[in-house]
User: Which sequence fits this backbone?
């Protein structure tokens, strides 16, 4: 078979639906009926709807990708609404609704049909109690935690009821959400929807404000502690300052440090004066013994006395020079001028020595003062060092005090911010439409349910029909025979209500079943010449498939054509051919095989079936397979071939015994009888493979016991109609 023959077309689907129409119709009717029953018996439910407007906060965060590129991430609205749904569906929120609306005191929710199962199922509770009394009770484990870590609901049953009835629907392109609540009472549905919306707004606000209130409470406690810490640190700082006798440890405000700075300034000035005095003294000292060099010292020349003496010296020298030109060296006036010059020079040297003595005294005083200042500075430095050591501990204490002050100021600022934020009562959710009492129920929607029921019934019926057909692994049609077995189909034998093994060829010759056997006979006669197809083996894969009935009726049909036909009961384990023909099973096949002289005794004929000879099974054989495979059986078939035109062998089932395989060597062809729609195809295929394994010639298949009222067997109802019509016409003529 090629791939084109195996293609599935729309007509194949239609045939499957036609074949399984009862399954599809049953499913369709069941679904529609169940839908109608539920639609008219279920309690009507009303839906209250409250619409809320969410103002999404435009929170943005700056993030960085792996490559270092910065990007701004905004809050996802879908994620936000999913979070709100999770909050709405939490048991904590449902318990809040129960408490806020006081449902435990509402008569509607205390009725038996609305009360929680613990109060409603008293019988079940009593049964559980009885079982607990019988069975040993397990010790309840102790709770290792305090009660502060466990929470309890006001009424778990009412919490479940609220969770089961409420819901939240969000728009895809809007910030409007719907709070819904289902109830069998329209007023309750509207009131609960509004109450849940108000509780949700309050709960949402509490979620936003609670962190600030908790922070404010924590900051308040911390402020008290911090204030005490600041006070203690200030006291400790003051005690340390008083204990050390220091007003201030700051350099710009400390007296000791200021004194040190002043002394250092004085030292610098004194040191400069000492250096000047020393220079002046050294200069005068270097020229004191060389009067001619006194003029090189600025301080000496700046002396008024010396300046006067120098002027006098110059005048005397000028007079001496004039006198020397007029008079000789020994002239009294010259001698007197020289004496005056010597006296003036001596006075200059004497005055210079006075200046040297004064410079020395000034130098000694400056040096002494410098030394004194250095000693004073060293002592002052020691005091400053002592003060610095004291300031180290002071700075530690002062640093702690400053830190405590800053921490206190920070806590105070955060406390003020938290208090301000915790006092805000503006929520980002507000009601824009309150729920009104619904005018009609939302469920059940009878029209919608009916349409869905019809749709589901059609789809389910078709699906189940295809599934049942897929799970059906039996052979039912000629197409199945050709496709699954690759064999020819002689004909389909319809199911008959007649007794098993009945010869319909004589008892009801006008029936479709008899016509089927005639069709099989015609197919055999046209398929090959009589010489080539003399011995025909009739077998089946499993028991009770109708092979004996088929063999008997086929033999009668061939005999009615004028052929000399012999039918042999080769099922020696379950001999039943004699019952079909209503004869006695005295001498039969087993005796004829053992004793060739009894061949003739085993052949029986009746006036009811002309041209037909019957050989029954005979006595019970201990070893049927060996007997059928013996030379005696071969010899018997050889003799019968010469006496009869056709020999029909009725054999046992293939998968039960090996007898058909032994007999297939003696037959010219084998006909497989299959219970249509009953025998699994894998068993039939296994039987076919067994026959092919011994190289038996399989002529074809007969589908037996088939319900021909199905649409796939459209031609068979015409037989009964045709013959019944003829009978009716005969009656009219009479």
Assistant:
């Amino acid at each position: 078979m090629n791939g084109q023959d195996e293609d599935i077309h729309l007509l194949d689907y239609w045939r499957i639906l036609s074949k399984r129409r009862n399954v599809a119709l049953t499913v369709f009717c069941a679904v529609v009926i169940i839908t109608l029953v539920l639609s008219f018996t279920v309690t009507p439910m009303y839906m209250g709807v409250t619409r809320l407007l969410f103002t999404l906060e435009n929170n943005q965060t700056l993030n960085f990708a792996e490559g270092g590129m910065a990007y701004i991430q905004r809050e996802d609205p879908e994620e936000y609404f999913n979070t709100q749904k999770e909050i709405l569906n939490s048991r904590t929120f449902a318990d809040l609704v129960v408490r806020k609306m006081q449902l435990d005191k509402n008569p509607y929710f205390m009725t038996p049909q609305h009360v929680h199962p613990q109060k409603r199922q008293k019988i079940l509770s009593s049964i559980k109690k009885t079982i607990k009394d019988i069975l040993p009770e397990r010790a309840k484990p102790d709770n290792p935690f305090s009660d502060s870590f466990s929470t309890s609901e006001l009424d778990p049953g009412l919490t479940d009821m609220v969770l089961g009835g409420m819901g939240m629907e969000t728009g895809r392109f809007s910030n409007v959400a719907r709070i819904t609540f289902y109830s069998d009472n329209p007023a309750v549905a509207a009131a609960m929807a509004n109450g849940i919306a108000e509780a949700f707004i309050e709960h949402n606000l509490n979620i936003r404000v609670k962190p600030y209130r908790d922070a404010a409470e924590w900051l308040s406690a911390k402020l008290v502690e911090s204030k005490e810490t600041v006070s203690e640190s200030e006291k400790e700082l003051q005690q340390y300052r008083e204990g050390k006798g220091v007003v201030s440890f700051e350099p710009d405000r400390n007296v000791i440090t200021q004194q040190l700075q002043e002394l250092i300034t004085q030292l610098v000035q004194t040191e400069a004066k000492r250096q000047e005095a020393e220079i002046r003294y050294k200069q005068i000292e270097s020229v004191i013994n060389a009067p001619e060099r006194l003029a090189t010292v600025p301080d000496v020349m700046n002396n008024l006395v010396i300046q006067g003496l120098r002027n006098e010296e110059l005048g005397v020298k000028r007079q001496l020079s004039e006198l020397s030109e007029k008079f000789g060296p020994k002239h009294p006036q010259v001698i007197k001028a020289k004496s005056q010059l010597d006296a003036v020079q001596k006075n200059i040297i004497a005055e210079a020595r006075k200046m040297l003595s004064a410079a020395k005294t000034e130098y000694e005083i400056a040096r002494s003062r410098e030394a004194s200042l250095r000693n004073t500075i060293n002592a002052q430095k020691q005091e400053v060092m002592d003060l610095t050591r004291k300031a180290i501990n002071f700075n530690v204490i002062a640093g702690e005090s400053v830190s405590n002050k800053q921490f206190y100021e920070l806590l105070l600022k955060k406390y003020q911010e938290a208090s301000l934020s915790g006092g805000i009562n503006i929520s980002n959710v507000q009601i824009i439409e309150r729920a009104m009492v619904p005018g009609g129920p939302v469920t059940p929607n009878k029209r919608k349910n009916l349409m869905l029921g019809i749709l589901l019934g059609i789809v389910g019926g078709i699906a189940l029909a295809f599934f049942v057909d897929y799970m059906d692994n039996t052979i039912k049609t000629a197409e199945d025979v050709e496709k699954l077995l690759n064999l020819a189909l002689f004909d389909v034998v319809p199911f008959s209500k007649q007794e098993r093994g009945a010869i319909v060829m004589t008892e009801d010759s006008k029936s479709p079943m008899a016509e089927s056997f005639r069709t099989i006979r015609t197919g055999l006669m046209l398929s090959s010449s009589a010489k080539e197809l003399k011995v025909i083996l009739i077998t089946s894969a499993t028991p009770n498939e109708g092979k004996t009935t088929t063999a008997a009726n086929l033999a009668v049909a061939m005999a009615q054509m004028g052929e000399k036909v012999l039918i042999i009961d080769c099922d020696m384990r379950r001999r039943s051919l004699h019952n079909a023909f209503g004869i006695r099973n005295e001498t039969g096949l087993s005796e004829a095989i053992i004793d060739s002289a009894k061949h003739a005794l085993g052949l029986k004929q009746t006036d009811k079936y002309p041209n037909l000879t019957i050989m029954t099974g005979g006595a019970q054989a201990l070893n049927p397979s060996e007997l059928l495979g013996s030379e005696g059986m071969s010899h018997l078939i050889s003799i019968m071939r010469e006496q009869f035109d056709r020999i029909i062998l009725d054999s046992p089932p293939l998968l039960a015994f090996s007898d058909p395989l032994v007999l297939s060597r003696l037959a010219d062809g084998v006909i497989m009888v299959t219970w249509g729609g009953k025998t699994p195809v894998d068993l039939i295929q296994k039987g076919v493979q067994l026959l092919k394994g011994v190289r038996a010639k399989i002529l074809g298949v007969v589908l037996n016991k088939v319900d021909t009222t199905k649409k796939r067997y459209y031609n068979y109802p015409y037989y009964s109609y045709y013959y019944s019509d003829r009978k009716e016409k005969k009656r009219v003529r009479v």
